[in-house]
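Milestone M4 deliverable, item 7.
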Amino acid sequence: MLNNWFYFLLSIILAAAVAFAYTRYSREYYKSSTKVLINSDNESSAAKAADILFGRGVRIVIITIGDQGVYYKTSDENGFVPAFKINSIDTTSAGDAFNGAFASCISKKMSLNDSVRFGCAAGALAVSKKGVQDSMPYSNDIDLFMENYCE
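Output delivered:
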């Protein structure tokens, strides 16, 4: 019986410690978060939104504009990467494909412009197929698409 109480109290203490750590570190994470992804209507409204977010302390602003492209802004650079024109079949996974490819590039220390461009290519390939998981492109497919893309 004493053994059960010991494990019960231990589980409560561990749960409290995890809750404390999560609360403390999640607040720290959100305070130091440097990236926000939002949607906008067009390049000029994205630029205005980026200025507002940048003015509020967001250090890297990335705004997706659907089939138009992506606007980005940092203290060093800003720019617009137009979307790859492709026959769209299912747009469900476009954002997931963009975010995954973009994150992959940033983690490899690629430039922001190259990372956004790679993300746009991934999104374009994703919308060219039906479904979500089946439409996620592989990195080599994205590279090949970017090499052979003609506007």
